[in-house]
Write the structure tokens for this entry.
Amino acid sequence: MLGSPPFSPLVSRRRVLQIVACGAAAVLTGARAHARTPPIVWEGTALGAPARLILVDESEKTASATVRACLDEVERLEREFSLYRPDSALSRLNANGALERPSLDFLHLLRLSVAFGERTGGAFDISVQPLWQVYADHFATHPDGGDGPPPAAIKEAVSRVGYQRLSIRSERIVLAPGMAVTLNGIAQGYITDRVAELLRARGYASVLVEMGEIRALGPAPAAPPWSVAVAVPPHVPADPLSLPLRDGAVASSAGYATAFDPAARFHHLFAPDTGASAQRFAAVTVVAPQATLADALSTALFVAQPETLPAMMQAFPSARAILTLPSGRRLRIPAA
Amino acid sequence: MPPVVAALLLMITMLPGFAAAAEGGARTLSAAELEVVFPGAHAVGPFEGQPAAAAVRGKDGRHAGYILSTFDTVGSTGYSGKPLDVLVGVDLAGVITGALLVRQTEPILVIGITEDDLRRYVAGFAGINVALRGTLAAGAAAPQAYPDVISGASISSAVIRDSIVRAATAVAGSRGLLGRASAAARIDVASFMPATWAELVADGSVTCRRFTQADGTALLLDLCAALATPARIGENLLGKLAHNRLGAALGPDDQAILIAAAGLVSVKGTAFVRSGRFERLQVVQGAETFGLTTAGYVNIEALRIAGAPEFREIGVFVIPAGAGFDAGAPWRIEVLAPGEGAGEPAILSIDYTLPARYVVSPPSSAAAAEPAVSEAAPLWQETWGGRWAAIVVLSLMLLVLTTALVFQEAVVRRPALYHRFRLAYLTVTLVWLGWWAGGQLSVVNVLTFIHSLMTGFQWDFFLLDPVIFILWGYVAAALLFLGRGVYCGWLCPFGALQELISEAARLLRLPQIVVPFTLHERLWPIKYVAFLGLFAVSLGSTRLAFLGAEIEPFKTVMSMTFLREWPFVVYALALLLAGLFIERFFCRYLCPLGAALAIPARMRMFEWLKRRPQCGRECGICFQRCPVQAIHPEGQINPNECVHCLNCQRVYADDTLCPPLAARRKRRERREALTTGAGPTLGSA
């Protein structure tokens, strides 16, 4: 599971990951071939990272209003879920141990997160944030890192992890003492979905949204599907993944993108049970109907015990996973 | 004080010394630096404002944009935690013209990345539109939005990018370059025209959307939404009584939203009974989320409009004025379908844009779509344009009244004409001005005006309602010239109603009570006490003062035409009942507006109501005939109480009624009889 720095203005897993992903994602040949006009492409920043929107059959006149509506939606949800904004709902929850009158979105995403926790046997856990603090403190004082934080400190932090100890009610959300929550393993996917749904409600049938994760609407049935490329981590001897995508989402998790040390032995994707940075896979990519599901699932698969993965994937029949091993070999669930 | 006069005085005293204090300004740029940050800049002003930025003028001398410092604006620090400063130019369209790194202590420079790399990276931000936080282009060959990250310095790159974008956005936003309207649109809540459900749906006043289960079989939710505040929507949907009740409960600029739903999903849920909030519902507008609570919420059993479908749940929800909701801009309702039974939880949403017919000012969405900085006409000009007919009629009314007052001798010399004119004028005042045009002034206007003088007077605010503004302007002038009676006796709709009722009472021969003058005199101060009390309360709580202003039945009788909670109706009716026996009972003793007008009216300059030396000494007819007993037994007219009805002038000019005049007439007749020699008495002698 993923931990994150609370206030560092910028340095998050996503920002780095997206820089990596940006160079390789979303090719639009298919969409362009069947559109009456060239698609409109917006490239900019959202969630503090490079982001992109591709709108097919959109006029240049309305494009800037549409993009603004999408960015407003991102801004609105960042005020809920951002760990980097001291006044976000999430930061207030972590700072006060409780959040009064959470919004519909906050309540919904927290309940979704808990449900994902249940369905992944605890691998997806939004309460691993105390582990991040331990690692961050350690690497702040030991720039070379050594063998990571002392086991006792990790053990103590693990004792404060456990989404089951969250009390979620519509009047208030309460954390157990010492708890802290991060939504960086799911919020990007959620925001991506919300932006896509907003565009769908505005009548867009063929859209590619890249706001932390990737979600596609369309393209038209006759057109070739979107083609999404996913970068491979450095030093992994494998080709980039190229995934055809039609009405679906892609999310990836990779330890190197949020590493504490140059060798990426320690990064932000923590196993909630041991508190260690998971090392089995170089990257995990999930294709699913929604980006929220793809995001949470890629995080959970990355940190879960390998023998549990096939069973876990059976709980999500609409999703498929591509696991890249450090050797460059790839596993697919279900097997293609 | 009359608003126009006082406002003029205030304007004159306010004009100098209005310049904002400049802050910072110590920063200077060399010509070479300026050429990088803002190519084509000709002159740069001081850094000022919040957040601080320097205005840039182009070669043609016109305002071209701003230059800002990321450190001053967002306190940017580098990866090292030490200050990092980039000067950024932004043009009036929100596009970055250039950026220059002026201060940094990044550790990466140690490991082989040169300062030139950083400078190149920073310079690459030119061309980014901060309103869109990126670039927009047709086709796959979109230009690279942000410069490539410096390899090996990704974190420094990210820090710098974030500083530049955030600082430029802050400055552009604060200077209105991002096209987001700062003022909420004004909504026409008053106009009413009957409409059917189908008509409201067709013109977008009500929007509906149907959600079915993923397999398309069962109906998940039939959701309809509308802004209920405008009368044409709310009154048609809810009925006049319920809509008026809603309007009375709403504060100014509160907005009411109607949500109606049918289907498997309950939009209200049940938790709100305990928690006071509707956890499955929210209103979203731009980047703002508005939760819905039970404060102001009204459960509606059934819609009162013809042709509405059956709904399982109907409710009116209130978004308070301070929440930042702009009823003129698009919004959406979101419903969390909890996914009980079959299916995943899902968020269902319905978009709503108030049709342009209800928007008095240009909607902010139009401004957002067109980010160019244009000189929009002030809001008040548009409201005036929209009510030109009322302005014309009111001007005619005032012209007629002025003419009648200027030539009052000619009018009062013709008693029948005077009487008919007065009744006709009062009827127009009551029906057209009061009920139709909403021209009932209130002590609330006076309180708001005094407060605006204390907190900062703004013309725009007072100009918004042309009828009220013109009326106040006229009253202010009339107050200075003749006293408060011109308003009270001719232009106050409630006063007109009372006088017409009294006229009817006399026709029905109801007994009229004459209050003994000593008691009458002792009752006068009540209205002054009421006004001073309201003023005192308003210093503490405007809300309480507005509540206290309900001592005026104007709202009940004029704007709400008695469709109101019963205590208000009973109060208003009681006053009118008292008026049957004591003419203008309310005006005489209770009206705080009359009191508020009487105080400055002591400055009045002219006295057009004529008296004779004999008045009060030899004759008390006017004293008895004055409908509001504003004439002392001693004969003088008390201008504080006078309603300028001209009744005493009619007597004054009537040589059958006014004893001195009658005596003079008799003398003259006698003399004429003598000179002609045809006098019957003499002839017989």
